[in-house]
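Exam review. A common question shows you a sequence with its structure tokens and asks you to describe the fold in words. Practice with the pair below. Do the first one on your own.
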Amino acid sequence: MGQFFNSPGSGYNDSLVPGVRSDTLEQRHFMSRVFGWMTVGLLITGIVALLVSENTKFVDSLANGGFWIVMIAQFGLVIWFSAGLNRMSAGLATLLFMAYSAMTGLTFSILFLIYTQASIASTFFITAGTFGSMALYGYVTKRDLTGLGHYAGMALWGVIIAMIANWFMHSSGLQSLINVVGVLVFVALTAYDVQKAKFMYLAGPDGSQVSQKAAVSAAFNLYLDFINLFLFLLMMFGNQRD
């Protein structure tokens, strides 16, 4: 996947391209794999969500208890991925990412019970445009976004705490504030994570286990940025069913 540069047997030699450094092309090759894996994850989520949403009985059972089982499984999978990435193979890391994407599809199938298909589709395109703009900024900017990423990370904890509190308070005003802050947090994290991913190609030689795991890890981070940005935008702008 993502073999856009230095394809085996292509006879293409980076060092022969005037004015283009081989490390720059290696970086672009790495980023193409990152966005390729991220796209695969989003496709899995979308396909699973659409297919499952057609089974009304299953979605109802998922909404009435099964949702939390899947959420706990997702949380455990993220912990396993994050804590064990250095010790696991690239194949296992990829499998866990794909499994998480499928589980997200299961939980997203419930969205079709809450929001109209038109608003889900329009919000997806809004998310794609917003994500793409911030990803481009993170890729081309020469400004160090480390500080922005750290502040966004701290703000994310505040959003999580506020969401837990509002679970009991049921305040529409607080929920609106959470949605706005959530969008800003994941807009910032998108730019930061893309900039961070730019240099993850240095983790190991192209094609090595380390390089493959770095690409999947970066793709997972960007996938989570996209998914959460989509959810907060949907809560802000989505039209609920009657």
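Now try the second one, then compare your answer with the model answer below.
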Amino acid sequence: MVDELLQNWEKKSADHQKLYKQYLHRADKRKVLKLLPDLHDEAFEKIDCLQCANCCKSYSPRFKTPDIKRIAKYLKMKEGDFINTYLFIDSEGDYVLKSKPCPFLGADNYCTIYEERPSDCHRFPYTDEDVLIKRQQLTQKNSNFCPIVYYVLEKLIALK
């Protein structure tokens, strides 16, 4: 059975954006950081990323130089060819994917480069680290397509 909190989560997240902004702005950062590990684990127990994969379908991680070197090597490509094939530089000066969904997302929602994936992918959805509080606009944006971010925010607000 699906957790009641997660029913219609996309609509609820859209409706709660102002509430999230206010909460993140006013939250006691130390208190939130203490709560995050348990809430993160709880969310991952209830939500199966492989059933969703919204992050891979609608979001591009940043590809930093170490990511590019590692992935190109894994794919047996020259770094320049990897960049030309898959990436472009966005308005913030970061390498991001040219296309969505991610070209490395399999039909089964598994990542075909999982062991070599970019650090942004490895860290996503940032619900167990200070990025949740430090990068509030990113957290709000992520809550629109990631049920784990939505879940953690809702739980934090309920605990305040």
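Model answer, second protein: The beta strands are 87-89, 95-97. The chain has a mean pLDDT of 95. Full marks require stating both points clearly.
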